[in-house]
Amino acid sequence: MAHHDTKFEGWVAMDKSAAEGNMVWQAYDPKPWEETDIDIEITHCGVCGTDLHQLRSGWGQTAYPVVVGHELVGITVRVGKEAAKTGVKLGDRVGVGAQNDACQCRKPPQTLKDHSDCNACSTGNEVYCPNMTLTYGAKYLTSAGGKSMGGYARYHRCPAAFAFKIPDNLASEHAAPMMCAGLTAFSPLVHFGSHYNQRPTSEKLKGLLVGVIGIGGVGHFAVLFAKALGAQRVVAFSRHADKRDDALALGADTYIATAEDRNWEVENAGSLDLILCTISSSNMPLTDYITLLKRDGSFCQLGLPDDGQFNVDAAAIASQRRSLTGSFMGSPNEIREMLQLAADKAIKPRVEVYPMSEANSVLKKMELGKAKYRYVMVNH
Ligand SMILES: NC(=O)c1ccc[n+]([C@@H]2O[C@H](COP(=O)([O-])OP(=O)(O)OC[C@H]3O[C@@H](n4cnc5c(N)ncnc54)[C@H](OP(=O)(O)O)[C@@H]3O)[C@@H](O)[C@H]2O)c1
Ligand SMILES: [Zn+2]
Ligand SMILES: [Zn+2]
């Protein structure tokens, strides 16, 4: 089949100064084409807090040159013979999140090593596959190899198994940030919150009291999805009062401004079943937050700070059999479930849309914490 004339160009980060708004628009090599791949003409890409950590090599040396962006939506312009077997067709509108591939229990000659005993991939936990490939700056484990390049670009090439059809009634600018931020909130809500796995998705959190700390991209999705999953009460925690009206409009029942309200940690101690913490800095009162949990409650860390480690009082955990846990993105079955729930319940994240050409200035605003609540860039 003749294919679209794809020219791979995008915002390339050459070194850590890229995080200050120094990405350069230029051509780059995508991964080598394989018949399990699709090419996507990107229409939308969200700006995730992770893009900043990676651009500045916050978690260790990033594999420059790299194109970041892992909340992309676009139209398929080329579909490999094997890719077509997943059901994806030319012209489909699909989304790709922060995971581009997993071993999927493949063996040589498809992959260099034998992965047939991968527990994560054989149990629907592909995001925890030890040989997974992130959407940018990572190596593919197939024999063709290559490096992943993300969504601040015109096109994206990826294995079809990690591209997901977007339901028709979900706008692309809303679906894009769901692919990472939305999923990162949705997955632990279902996993840790659900005492009712047999119930329909919209009743999974019935009767539970859920806290969300940090009202940014991931945090605002946590409020939206906690409500959509039937939580009895959602309490939003943010440093300042300025996000109060927005958080309540998103569905939070209560709002606490931790840097301004007095005595919140004492007044709310022992009140929550599950807390999702999205804070991107290690500079936070973790022990006070954990004390907000009831007996047997779970504190799930989602934010991945690059400015230091946490200090925590062990007694705050042990004395009430509380759990300190974490969660990473989500797996393909959860992506499908999330997109369906979002379509059924007409979930609308708060996004601010900018042209892709303004990526450098958008990054600077993101760094300053100005996003309300997700920047989404659009190719024209
Ligand atoms: N686990 C995963 O799979 C996963 C997936 C996606 C992202 N992440 C990570 O999650 C974090 C959040 O990502 P995001 O895209 O939601 O970012 P974001 O929109 O910037 O939100 C982060 C929130 O953290 C709080 N915050 C920021 N700087 C802070 C500081 N210095 N001290 C205390 N609080 C601070 C703010 O909340 P308030 O203004 O409300 O106080 C801010 O809204 C990042 O570390 C990102 O890498 C993890
Ligand atoms: Zn992300
Ligand atoms: Zn695997």
TrEMBL record:
<dbReference type="InterPro" id="IPR020843">
    <property type="entry name" value="ER"/>
</dbReference>
<keyword id="KW-0479">Metal-binding</keyword>
<dbReference type="Pfam" id="PF08240">
    <property type="entry name" value="ADH_N"/>
</dbReference>
<feature type="domain" description="Enoyl reductase (ER)">
    <location>
        <begin position="21"/>
        <end position="377"/>
    </location>
</feature>
<protein>
    <submittedName>
        <fullName>Zinc-binding dehydrogenase</fullName>
    </submittedName>
</protein>
<dbReference type="Pfam" id="PF00107">
    <property type="entry name" value="ADH_zinc_N"/>
</dbReference>
<dbReference type="InterPro" id="IPR029752">
    <property type="entry name" value="D-isomer_DH_CS1"/>
</dbReference>
<dbReference type="GO" id="GO:0008270">
    <property type="term" value="F:zinc ion binding"/>
</dbReference>
<keyword id="KW-0560">Oxidoreductase</keyword>
<dbReference type="InterPro" id="IPR013154">
    <property type="entry name" value="ADH-like_N"/>
</dbReference>
<dbReference type="InterPro" id="IPR011032">
    <property type="entry name" value="GroES-like_sf"/>
</dbReference>
<comment type="similarity">
    <text>Belongs to the zinc-containing alcohol dehydrogenase family.</text>
</comment>
<dbReference type="GO" id="GO:0016616">
    <property type="term" value="F:oxidoreductase activity, acting on the CH-OH group of donors, NAD or NADP as acceptor"/>
</dbReference>
<dbReference type="InterPro" id="IPR036291">
    <property type="entry name" value="NAD(P)-bd_dom_sf"/>
</dbReference>
<dbReference type="InterPro" id="IPR002328">
    <property type="entry name" value="ADH_Zn_CS"/>
</dbReference>
<keyword id="KW-0862">Zinc</keyword>
<dbReference type="InterPro" id="IPR013149">
    <property type="entry name" value="ADH-like_C"/>
</dbReference>
<dbReference type="InterPro" id="IPR047109">
    <property type="entry name" value="CAD-like"/>
</dbReference>
